[in-house]
Amino acid sequence: MQENDEFNNDKLGLQWQWHANPKEGWALPFPSAGVLRLNSILQTDSIKNLWLVPNLLLQKLPAEKFSATVKFSFAPKTAGERFGFVMMGSSYAYLSLEKKENGLFLAYGNCMNADKGNAEEEKILDMVQRENIYFRITVNTGAQCSFSYSSDGIAFTTVDKNFTAQPGRWIGAKIGFFCTRTVKTNDAGFAELDWFRIEK
After folding, report:
1. What residues contact residue 24 under an 8 Å CB cut-off, 6+ apart?
2. Taking Cα atoms as reference points, which of 9, 69, 2, 3 lies closest to residue 34?
3. Per-residue model confidence as pLDDT tens digits over 172-183
4. CA 51 to chain centre
5. Burial code of 119-137, b = ≥16 C-beta within 10 A, e = fewer?
6. Were 159 and a residue from 35, 87, 125, 147 both cysteine, which residue would form a disulfide, CB within 3.0 to 4.6 Å?
7. What is the pTM of this model?
8. What structural domains does the chain harbor?
9. What are the DSSP calls for 113-177, one per residue?
10. Rounded to an integer, what distance in angstroms lies between the CA atom of residue 140 and that of residue 146?
11. What is the pLDDT of residues 39-67, one digit of tens each?
């Protein structure tokens, strides 16, 4: 099993679905550059976790065991912007890059029973000096998920946290991306997805 999405078309593949009815500007394909740009969308204070965030770009899990890797760059402009790679369901976990006042930080977060309105828990893993990075989610038997990251796509560092994927309210768990911000601005940042690959 291998699935490659190089984002070099002017439309998303049918395997990708938004968490809610999509709005113009959430995602902009740039086939000439071979990237998909996800603009950071305002997440209001009333939203406690990703369960109610509409601009999640997700797809169903392709197999019982697989690894999914994304190469991307992140160009935030204001503190409070973040891009994440998430295993989404009624409970979820993610890796993210987040812009703070004092720099760009790598974080691992999760939320148990997100559909009940629970707040996220998040741990800052490291400060990063570059915006180009690789994220990976590896899924094993029993929906056991591990998260890892890399600066070169070769040597990956595994996060010391395991997560069991959970189905959503009407569907199974999904894997995908979010790009959000906490500040109102007319000049928001973005993430650009270079490629997304699923392998055994």
Report:
1. none
2. 9
3. 899 999 999 999
4. 13
5. eeeeeebeebeebebbbbb
6. 147
7. 0.94
8. 2-64+71-132+165-199 (2.60.120.200)
9. TGGGTPPPEEEEEEEES-SEEEEEEEEETTTEEEEEEESSSSS-EEEEEEEE----SSS--EEEE
10. 9
11. 999 988 888 899 999 999 999 999 999 99
